[in-house]
Design a protein that fits this description.
Order of helices and strands: EEHHHEHEHEHEHEHEH
Oligomer: single chain
Distance between the termini: 12 Å
Helix content: 40-55%
Number of helices: 9
Largest sheet: 6 strands, parallel
Strand order of the largest sheet: 5-4-1-6-7-8
């Protein structure tokens, strides 16, 4: 890494950041809420959030176990019809970071059953990542910082000044800032625009995660 930048851990979102899932999670979320008699007009406001919390808020009730199960079933069906895939250049970027001694963790607003299925489809269960933190592993999802701090705990990284976080939603950026990460990167591979991401505190906006290794190695975030 030529001593250009001190980063011990890169923490990345999944959907829209490292994985192209064609927006199916939000289709499933909207369809679930509508089927339960609610309105999905504001589904976009829940990008990057805990999906149970999203369903609960959109339906205006705290207990939504049945609806959450419906969401899981719809999403599994959509993923079977249109399988998720890694975003171009991401597997190479993950390997390059790790070959330079940087730990790589994923965090997500998905719960563990959804994530396990995604990792199986992608072939990312072994030898690709150092940690995966799901929203049901912590007390609260984004914009709370807990998933990032949990990723630090799992990878043995203690200094937030040596952490880079990246994601495609404003909640990702808010979580990175709330965690105290030195580098908070927005990526334009998801559905939110540069204008939307740029309105939230961040250190960099990149086209995709594929650009992160070069940024780190060049000292562009030093």
């Amino acid at each position: 890494m030529n001593g250009a930048m001190k980063v011990d851990l890169v923490v990345l979102d999944i959907a829209g950041t490292t994985v192209e899932e064609h927006g199916l999670v939000y289709k499933a979320l909207a369809d679930t809420v509508v089927a339960a008699g609610g309105s999905a007009r504001n589904v976009g406001e829940w990008m990057g959030a805990d999906k149970y919390e999203a369903i609960s808020s959109m339906l205006g009730k705290s207990e939504v176990d049945g609806e959450f199960q419906d969401f899981h079933e719809r999403l599994a069906k959509y993923y079977a019809e249109t399988p998720p895939a890694s975003i171009a250049g991401v597997p190479e970027a993950l390997a390059r970071l790790r070959s330079n001694g940087v730990k790589v963790a994923l965090t997500t607003g998905f719960d563990r059953p959804v994530v396990d299925g995604l990792l199986d489809v992608l072939g990312w269960r072994e030898g690709v990542l150092d940690a995966v933190v799901c929203v049901d592993d912590v007390k609260a999802g984004r914009p709370a910082p807990y998933m990032i701090h949990r990723a630090m705990e799992l990878t043995g990284v203690r200094d937030v000044r040596r952490v880079l976080t990246a994601g495609d939603t404003t909640r990702d950026l808010q979580a990175g800032t709330n965690a105290g990460a030195a580098f908070v990167v927005g990526v334009l591979s998801g559905s939110q625009t540069a204008e939307e991401l740029g309105a939230v505190r961040h250190t960099h906006l990149l086209r995709s995660v594929a650009e992160i290794p070069a940024l780190v190695e060049s000292g562009g975030v030093a």
